[in-house]
Amino acid sequence: MGVGRFVYTPILPLMQSQTGLDPEAGAHLATANYVGYLVGAVALSLAPGLTASRPLLRTSLVALVGSLALMPATGPSGWLLLRLVAGIASAVVFLAAVRVAVRATQNSPHRAGYAYAGVGSGIALSGLLVLLWGSSPWPFAWYSAAGCALVLFVPLWILHGRGEHTHSSTVAPATRTTDGNAYVLLLILYFLEGVGYIIAATFLVAALSDTGLAWLGNTTWILVGLAAAPSCVVWAYWSRRVPRPTLLVVALAVQTVAIALPGLTTQPAVVLLAALGFGGTFMGITTLTLGLGAELDLPRAAATLTAGYGFGQVLGPIVVQPTLGSGYRPALLIGGAIVFTATLLAVRLAVVTRTRQEAAA
């Protein structure tokens, strides 16, 4: 998923320089991918049992690899369709992975963070592939991404579903509490996170090209992935010691600064630090949010939250599209402002959950 969904970010500058793809068309391609992700997430929220379907997962994996390999063989209309397919497949793969990870780590829930690390690793790998190709023809970047995704896909054909029933059904569930108001806050802030984070995830490399830091673009994207890979494990580890709502506030605050900084400065060291901050939080926020959704004990929480997140990602490129004529840096400032709003809601969520826990005590 990390390769299939996010390799577009480092390839975007190549396509702009070699195919004449303009910023608006680039934003449309990004939106098509996010619409697909939303469609997949909504479908699985309505039929959550599909996350257990091995044929569906295998079909999605094939579609994800194919969507990468076929990009050079089509034109703008085909690109839109292929990025849409990649989005749908990504949602299926992610939610199926969440299901397997949760079931496989029933006795040690924090270990699910190791599974989420795959997304960050894929992002780093996608950046490395594009960096290695340099200024080669843009189709080679898509072909190499497809080959890499195919290699990663092979073991999943065998492993999906194994070990799902290895744990006794008598394992005591985690302490949960149903709180509709807290869930609404969580859903809204996760939607806003989807809007803000995707702006940076889509346009960060292109924004650096605007500022004369094109040479730093792919290196920055690799750092985002390298920081994201262990971040879920780290955030999950701390969630056993610090309340998740408090950690969510911290993660969103750090991400706010990390998204906005590349829009404010051209200092390479600061940009690299911001990349680490962004990579170290966006998958961690997903881990914390889905964990909180499970604690609130609402049906289909993971799929519903992912759908809200996906809807936010659809809106992200649309929100900033009017500003792209002035370059990509203003878009990062807008993204930072949106995540800051999510941070304020997270503060409110932390207060609500703490008050309720104190009242229950």
Characterization of the model:
The chain has 361 residues and is mainly alpha-helical. It has one domain: Growth Hormone, Chain: A (Up-down Bundle), CATH 1.20.1250.20. The chain is 80% helix and 0% strand. The chain is built from 13 helices and no strands. The longest helix has 32 residues. About 4% of the residues have low confidence.
Which helices and strands occur, and which strands form pairs?
Elements: H1 2-6, H2 8-19, H3 23-46, H4 54-69, H5 76-104, H6 112-133, H7 138-159, H8 180-210, H9 214-238, H10 244-264, H11 268-295, H12 301-320, H13 329-360
Helix pairs in contact: 2-8, 3-5, 3-12, 4-5, 4-7, 6-7, 6-9, 6-11, 8-9, 8-10, 8-11, 8-12, 8-13, 9-11, 10-11, 10-13
Q: Return the CATH architecture.
A: Up-down Bundle
Number of strands: 0
Average of the residue pLDDT scores: 85
Level-1 CATH class name: Mainly Alpha
- SSE pattern, N- to C-terminal: HHHHHHHHHHHHH
Percent range for β-strand residues = under 5%
Shape: globular
Terminal CA distance reads: 42 Å
Q: What is the fold named in CATH at topology level?
A: Growth Hormone, Chain: A
| Percent range of helical residues | over 70%
CATH level 4 superfamily:
MFS general substrate transporter like domains
Q: What kind of sheet is the major sheet?
A: none
Task: Please compute the radius of gyration using only Cα atoms.
Answer: 19 Å
How many domains make up the coordinates?
A: 1
The residue ranges in which pLDDT falls below 50 over 5 or more consecutive positions are 162-175
**Helical stretch tally:** 13
Structural class: mainly alpha
Keywords: Membrane, Transmembrane, Transmembrane helix
Organism: Allosaccharopolyspora coralli
Protein name: YbfB/YjiJ family MFS transporter
InterPro entries: MFS_4 (IPR010645), MFS_trans_sf (IPR036259)
